[in-house]
Design a protein that fits this description.
single chain; 10 strands; 16 helices; 478 residues
């Protein structure tokens, strides 16, 4: 699951802090999620491949006036605005709705440089923040809950040490061993609504699947996993939940994890068994000289849970929506799956990550000394946000970037990041995305949208990009 240096990768190493896009539909109506225009080079499909679905005409001109950022319309479809920024202000200073001022990096080459630049720290201590911005660059409540010492907020050598402790849980081999459980979860969730003929794929499928999967991987007992589902639901609502709800959910999760760590430590066997859960592994490493403090263990478990599910929720939701609105590409994938092939499924998930991925902006980085990105001077203490969604549609890097082509061959997207913060959970994210999409298309072959695309709403939040709901209809399974 995309988790940054973790299990599901929010911005390759980073969860969301609120953008607070207005929740009132009267302040702006979402527009259909159609590709944005822009100068592109035509991508020619191989002779034996169907042509990719083309973007619809009528998009705003990227060469027009400067777009307004962080509105309801922008949240629904940010790609025209990002096209304008790439062309006219590729490293752009803006004031976020939270009041924090930051640089937005939108071109692919600049984004790749920034993601790997060691002069950009992940540690919020380097933020030269005014009083009104204090504490507004992380997860609400993580400071008070003493959950700051996780992979998304630290640099080497601590980052190197902590990443090493969890990396073996996300190797391709370990993830492959977990594949039957992911398939079981996908089938069980579909079974719950299959006879009804309708479903909200976000709440009934895309959201619970990665929650239960990461809980299993971490070692959260099955009887407690619904609590985590409730807390996680509060955390991804951003501006849509009760005031202070995210901080309360973080506090409750912190208390539970501290208790779980104590219980697991007391019951830990002398030697690890096959497939030992990740929290037990962290405790074992701490007890054998890896110098993992209790706060670090709790923070690591917290961020693995948080980063290990939200990006996968959005990957499944955004990916399914893209397939339902691009019938030609969906048909290609269905035919490939029916023939028992997986190549198009694998390349297709990568293309869905590039085209409308789950992480819109990589999370916060802070300049530790003067540097220049894309010809723009950045001062020490300045926050820098790499706009992955803009970089992955850069026509200077991708042919026909606004076209969805599941068979795209040259697809070195930045959806999982780049550099030392490259998404540790990428193998798990790929597995969950591939399993979810293949299972939906195979078991529900006439799956279709049960709403006008213009009526779908996207969640607010600075880092993540995902639908609030995805109503669908299909022939009921008897």
């Amino acid at each position: 699951m995309p988790g940054p240096s973790t299990a599901a990768c929010p911005a390759p190493d980073e969860p969301a802090s609120a953008r607070q896009v207005p929740d009132d539909p009267a302040q702006g109506r979402p527009t259909p999620d159609q590709p944005a225009p822009g100068p592109t080079t035509a991508a020619r499909p191989a002779p034996d491949e169907p042509a990719p679905d083309r973007p619809a005409p009528g998009r705003p001109d990227p060469g027009g006036p400067a777009p307004e950022l962080f509105t309801w319309e922008f949240a629904s479809d940010p790609y025209p605005a990002y096209a304008w920024l790439r062309e006219h202000a590729p490293v752009h200073r803006t004031r976020l709705p939270s009041g924090v001022e930051a640089w937005l990096v939108t071109r692919y080459a600049d984004a790749r440089q920034a993601l790997a630049d060691q002069r950009l720290s992940k540690n919020p201590a380097h933020h030269d923040e005014p009083a009104h911005a204090k504490g507004k660059t992380g997860i609400p409540g993580e400071r008070k809950a003493e959950l700051m010492t996780h992979l998304l907020n630290i640099d080497p050598p601590d980052h190197t040490r902590l990443r090493r402790l969890v990396s073996k849980a996300f190797t391709p081999r370990r993830v492959a061993e977990f594949a039957p459980r992911v398939q079981e979860l996908a089938d069980n969730l579909i079974d719950r609504f299959a006879e009804r003929g309708t479903a909200d794929l976000i709440h009934e499928f895309a959201f619970p699947l990665p929650i239960y999967a990461i809980c299993d991987l971490l070692g959260v007992p099955r009887e407690d996993q619904d609590d985590f589902r409730d807390w996680a639901g509060m955390m991804i609502r951003h501006g849509g939940g009760p005031r202070g709800g995210v901080a309360r959910a973080v506090k409750r999760m912190r208390g539970y994890l501290a208790d779980l760590i104590h219980r697991k430590r007391a019951a830990l066997p002398a030697e690890p068994g096959p497939g030992e859960d990740l929290i037990s592994g962290l405790i074992r490493a701490s007890d054998h000289g890896e110098h993992l403090t209790e706060n670090e263990a709790a923070a690591m478990a917290f961020i693995l849970l948080f980063a290990g599910f939200e990006t996968t929720v959005n990957l499944i939701g955004n990916g399914t929506y893209a397939l339902l609105t691009h019938p030609g590409q969906r048909r290609r994938l269905e035919e490939s799956l029916a023939a028992g092939e997986r190549g198009l499924l694998e390349s297709g998930v990568e293309e869905l990550l590039r085209y409308d991925g789950p992480v819109e902006l990589a999370t916060w980085r802070f300049a530790t000394r003067p540097l220049t990105i894309g010809g723009q001077d950045i001062a020490p203490g300045d926050p820098v946000l790499v706009v992955l969604a803009a970089a992955d549609r850069d026509p200077a890097r991708f042919a026909d970037p606004d076209v969805l082509d599941l068979g795209r061959r040259d697809n070195q997207h930045l959806g999982y990041g780049h550099g030392i913060h490259y998404c540790l959970g990428a193998p798990l994210a790929r597995l969950e995305g591939q399993t979810a999409l293949a299972t939906l298309l195979t078991r529900l072959p006439d799956l279709r949208l049960d709403a006008d695309p213009a009526d779908l709403r996207w969640r607010g939040g600075l880092i993540m990009r995902g639908l609030r709901t995805l109503p669908v209809r299909f022939t009921p399974l008897g």
